[in-house]
Every structure is written in C-alpha cells, then in structure tokens.
Amino acid sequence: MKATIKWTDGRQFVTESGSGHAVVIDGNPDNGGRNTGPRPMEMVLMGLGGCTSYDVINILEKARQKVTGCVAELEAERADGTPAVFTKIHVHFVVSGVGLKEAQVKRAVELSAEKYCSASLMLVRGGVDVSHSYEIHDA
User: Fold this and answer.
1) Does this model's pTM top 0.90?
2) What is the pLDDT at residue 46?
3) 55 vs 20, 87, 107, 112, CA distance in Å?
4) Under CATH, domain 40-138 is a member of which superfamily?
5) How is the chain classified by DSSP, letter by letter?
6) DSSP 81
7) pLDDT tens digits for 82-135?
C-alpha cells in the first residue's frame, strides 16, 4: 500500500492513494489553513469508520441479510497535550434492512471489532479505547 502527500500551500495538502484516488486535507484558518478539506486526524477517524463499515456490510451480506442501509456514527476524544492522540472512540452503527436478525448484526459488529478491522485493531493496540454499539431499523 502506498500514498503520496503533496503540499500545495498554507496548511493544505493533496493526498493520493496508491489506487489513484485523491483527497484534499487542510488545517483550520487559525493555524494557517483555509478549511478546504478534512483535518489529518479526521481522516484517521473516517478511515476507521470506512474500514469497520466495510466489514459489517460484507459480513451481513455473506450471512444473507437484506441490508438496505448502514451508517456508522463516530465520536472521538483526544488527549489535551501534544501529541493530541485519540484516547477514546465510539462507533455506533445504524443498520437498516428487511427482517434483519439482531444476532447477525451483533456478530458482524463484534467480528469487525475483534478480528477484521485493521484500523480499529491498530488503534486499540496503540492504547485507544474503541467501543461499538448498534441499532437496527426495519426498512
């Protein structure tokens, strides 16, 4: 896996993944940015959300669950000092579908958290308290 980060000006950078996708990241105006993209630590949080959501959908589809929607809502706390690392992250899934089995949704969230989500496991091993919850909506 590769990525390239190119400084443009101020505190703005254009990142490009090895697969050729680009994202602008920037700082807030108080620190020399122009607020044209997410902050780097927001990207870490979004990466975690994307990684675990991918797992949950994949697991549910393999279990033949009729999923029509999945939203992961993440809230994070950071240390007060420098470095301002994440100390706690909570991931709440809102899963919608037809006749979803709660046991299957619960198991999908657990498998992602405990076995499959590389981003989550990396953060947990780094000392971040990562927790998960879910709710199910009938579509």
Assistant:
1) yes
2) 98
3) 22, 23, 11, 6
4) K homology (KH) domain (3.30.300.20)
5) --EEEEEEETTEEEEEETTS-EEEE---GGGT----S--HHHHHHHHHHHHHHHHHHHHHHHTT-EEEEEEEEEEEEE-SSSS--EEEEEEEEEEEEES--HHHHHHHHHHIIIII-HHHHHHHHTT-EEEEEEEEEE-
6) S
7) 999 999 999 999 999 999 999 999 999 999 999 999 999 999 999 999 999 999
Integer Cα distance of 6 and 21 in angstroms: 13
Tell me, what's the pLDDT at 17?
96
Fold of 1-38: N-terminal domain of TfIIb (2.20.25)
Domain boundaries, the chain: 1-38, 40-138
pLDDT on residue 80: 97
